[in-house]
Amino acid sequence: xxxxxxxxxxxxxxxxxxxxxxxxxxxxxxxxxxxxxxxxxxxxxxxxxxxxxxxxxxxxxxxxxxxxxxxxxxxxxxxxxxxxxxxxxxxxxxxxxxxxxxxxxxxxxxxxxxxxxxxxxxxxxxxxxxxxxxxxxxxxxxxxxxxxxxxxxxxx
Length: 156
Prior knowledge:
This protein is α/β, with parallel strands linked by helices. The protein has helices spanning 15-31, 47-58, 98-108, 112-127, 135-152, and strands at 3-8, 38-45, 66-70, 89-97. The protein has five helices and four strands, in the order βαβαββααα.
């Protein structure tokens, strides 16, 4: 079972949405075979807040739907974190723009619950090392997303 820390910077995310995200990410963690005491944070924010982060960390001065920061990803000059026994495994942070999620749910013809669940799962898979930089990686990641969403019952 994951320890998930939620932060709603918008004040608009319902308990129903946070429970959906918790249940979905627990389901995904089980399907991925995670063990130990993994932790993740999920922050719900506005387009303006996520735009600033996207500009600062990714060099893209525009709002986006989801950004993930994996703790295990190392950049030049960083020191590796040594995991001690009985210590929680901190996977990282998932940031979701609820405004972009609302627009995309209308575009894609499903409700906001499904869109936010999808974005949370997408970010979570990035924390686990999945990516979509190449066509092969994209097929693997998107195929896994679809499989997890279907087994959870959150299909389009």
